[in-house]
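fyi for ur records
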Amino acid sequence: MTGARGQALSWKVADGVVELALHREPCNEIGSQTLDELEKFISALEDSEGGAHALIIHSDVKSGFCAGADLRELYRRSQAISKEAAVKGVREYLGRIHRVMNAIDASPLTTIAAVHGVTFGGGLELALVCDLIIADKMARFCFPELRLGLIPGFGGIPRLKRDLGNAVVRDLLLTGRSFNTTKAQQIGMVSQVVGEGEALRAARATAAQLGKFDRATAAAAKKFIKPIPYEELQQEIDIFCELFTRPAVEEGLKRFVESTDAQPYLP
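which gave:
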C-alpha cells in the first residue's frame, strides 16, 4: 500500500502509519463517489495491514471533518420510479457503507480520527468506528437526522451505545443538539482535546507512540474490548429503510436540497 489520490479522498503510508485524508468540498459529504473510493481504500488497507500499526483519518477541508451523508444524493434516490426501488437502492447503499465502516472498526490497526469543525451525522459515525477520537477545541458533534425524519444509518447508534451507553445515545439522537469538545470529552466520546488546528499533529504523535508496542498484543486487546454489534447494525439498516418510505422524510430532504443557507447541515 503505497498510497493513492482520488476525487474525494487520498491515502499514504509513512513510518508504519496509514493516513486517510478526506478532501471533498464543501465538507466531505459521503455520497457514491466517496463510497467508491472508501471501498478501494479498504481493499488496499486489508492487503497491507501487516506493514503498519496505526491508521489516522482526518480532513483537509477547512469547514470540518465531515458533514455526513450526501443528502442531495439521498433525495435523488427518494425520487426513484417507485418506493420499492428507492428503498432497494438505499438498502444496497447502506449495506456497502456498513461493510466499509465494519472493516475499519475491525481492523487490527489502532485507528485514530483527528477531527475539527463540523463532525455531524455520517461524519460522526465515521469517527466512532475509530479506536480514538482526537478533536481540536472547535469541533462539534451532532446527529441531525431527526430533522429529516430519519435515524443515523451508518452504524452510529449501535457504536455509540457500545462505547458510551444509552443515555448519551438518547440525548444525541432525540434532541438533535450538538456537543462541543468539552462535553464530548466529559462523556468519554473524545479521548483528547487539543488546540485549534492541532488535531492531526496530536494524532501523528499518538500514532508514533503506538509504534513502540507489540502489534499482536494491541490487536488482541482491541478485539477483546471492542466487539462489533453486527445484529444491531443490521437492525439500524432495517429501521432506516422503513422510515425512508415516509412522506416526512421526502419533505425534509427537499427542504434541505432547496435551502439557500451556506451550510444547511448546521442545526
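The longest strand covers residues 9-14. thats all i got for now
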